[in-house]
Amino acid sequence: MDSARQRGIGAPVPPQEDPLIGRLLDGRYLIKSVIASGGMGTVYRAEQRSMSRDVAVKVLRTDLEADSRVAGRILTEAMAASRLRNPHTITVFDFGYGEDGVVFLVMELLFGQTLGEWMRANGAPMDVARAICMVGQVLDSLEEAHDVGVLHRDLKPDNIFLMDGSGARDFIKVLDFGVAKIAGEAGIAAGSSGLALGTPIYMSPEQMMGGELDPRSDLYSLGVVLFELLTGRPPFEGDSALDLARQKVRQVPPSLRDTNPEARFGPTMESLLGRLLAANPADRPEDAAALRTLLAEAIHRQNGEESPETERPAAGPALAFATARTDSPPEARPLSGEAAMSMSELPEPTLPDAGPVPNARPPIDASGLARNADRVRKAASELGRKPMLVPGADRRADSRQACLLKVSCVQADIPRTAFVANISRSGGYVHADWLPQVRERLALVFPAQEGGASEVTVVAEVVRVVSTPTQPGVVRGFSVRWLSLRCRGRLDGLARFYRSVFGEILTVPFSLDTESSYWEYSFATRMLVNSGV
To answer: Of 127, 147, 154, 158, which residue is the catalytic one?
Structure first.
């Protein structure tokens, strides 16, 4: 394992003299080493003495500590991140002032590398299936943030982290809400104290021109990241921020096919990137949920638009589509020979009709460029965007079904018996005579059943622990959020398992008699990957 992975979050920093190393910050955090340095300050690896665990501590640059506006920005970062609970968002534990007025932020310590580091090390464009899977996880983080009124404003590969040892392949964490803005709350102006809020290559046109921002600005930045993953370069490059801003407002983004001729991109994928990188926010997808749907449709049509005689690239896994919820899902029940559905009961999977595909890049009337530049400065309310949910709104849309499924729960490599008491497609409640920690990841192993899939492993994250129940009917246990599902064997067995346990049909473009040594399903992106081919 290289030094970047050993040191945790961020790029490795050469050893250097630092007055904070060896110091007990605020009497609680023993600073051990430097992880990374940036425009706002330095990130250290530290030991939280009260918990005997290592954490990442972000300390504000010493020349900025006296600026109350900058300290307010760090406080805003802490407030913004503390509202977020999504497993694809980095967790913020604490915020405070140390001796001599040192301002610091305490976060979970991650191990792995940033997406930017991966791109610089590998250079070549990423496989389409893998890129879409990563973008789907970023969308999961952004959707929650936008729902509670938080905009990221600095989404870029260096703020997207690929974790090691997370229990899921290519598990993503979104980092650094240091330039995040809470909707409706004032923040420091761009340029204060010499700070530039955002990274020009990835910033939306309206952000570069000082316009009002809404969630579609973050989606533009994510579109730049996706374009760069698929082609190996960003859509716009310039010698200055002003040059970049002019290009983004006045020019149509280059096509994927022209930028990366060796890859094959269908018209639907081209059209989607054209919408994401539109200069006018009104022309982009409305929100993260809408973009997720469009990505799923693009993958469906991408598979259908490939020529039958054209071989697909050998690198990377094959990608399948999302699940389709039935109008009246059956009650979840234990998987058994009697309960498992016969294949005759499963509807034949079909793909949506692609239909006519609109021109990905319609010609632009040069006389309208000035009007377009004005429109990106308009307030979001004038563009008719969907309002964000109020902070604290309940986002759990899936009701849970009562059941009693005996599983083997693997915690810290130790298998234990547990019972899944209720379940939905997003999470469940597990009854056990032992209790894990909140945010701990564990694996629930469902045994193989006659006529069904082989042994199925569902990786989950603990979101709540109930040690002393106070409500009638609630037993000691813990709530979990599903992260990924893994199994092997024929796809029809997995389809039976998914229908029986989650009450849904698993709709895929594969034939149901397809067999693989490794199926992996991501609950965040609702996509199935055949990694055994």
So the answer is: 154
Instruction: Write the DSSP assignment of 404-456 as a string of letters.
Output: EEEEEEEETTEEEEEEEEEE-SSEEEEE-SS---TT-EEEEEEPP-TTS-S-E
Whether 63 is catalytic is no
Is CATH 3.90.226.10 correct for 3-108? no
- At the topology level, CATH places domain 401-530 in Thrombin, subunit H (2.40.10)
- Report the distance separating Cα 81 and Cα 193, nearest Å: 23
For CATH 1.10.510.10, the residue range(s) in the chain are: 113-183+197-311
Chunked in runs of 10, what are the mean pLDDT values of the chain (533 residues)?
A: 42 60 92 83 91 89 55 64 83 80 86 92 86 92 88 91 73 76 40 52 92 92 96 92 91 92 85 94 93 85 51 37 36 35 36 40 40 43 43 47 85 86 88 86 84 80 80 73 89 86 77 84 80 64
**Start and end residues for every CATH 2.40.10 domain found in the chain:** 401-530
338 to 334, 341, 450, 500, 501: CA distances (angstroms): 10, 8, 9, 11, 14
The CATH number assigned to the domain with range 113-183+197-311 reads 1.10.510.10
Q: Are 55 and 106 in contact (CB under 8 A)?
A: yes
Cβ neighbours of residue 240 under 8 Å, at least 6 residues apart? none
Q: Name the helix (H) or strand (E) containing 6.
A: helix 3-7
Tokens describing residue 190: 């761009």
CA distance 508 to 173: 27
CA-based radius of gyration for the chain? 24
* φ, ψ dihedrals at 452, nearest 5°: -115, -160
Of 464, 482, 455, the residue nearest 398 (C-alpha): 482
Q: Quickly count: other Cβ atoms within 10 Å of residue 464's Cβ.
A: 12
Residues of the chain within CATH 3.30.200.20 domain(s) are 3-108
- Given a contact cutoff of 8 angstroms between Cβ atoms, the answer to whether 419 and 433 are in contact is no
Sign of the alpha-carbon dihedral angle for 203, 205, 211, 217 = negative
CA angle 304–265–300, rounded 5-degree value: 30
Question: Would you say 21 and 32 are in contact if contact means Cβ atoms under 8 Å apart?
Answer: yes
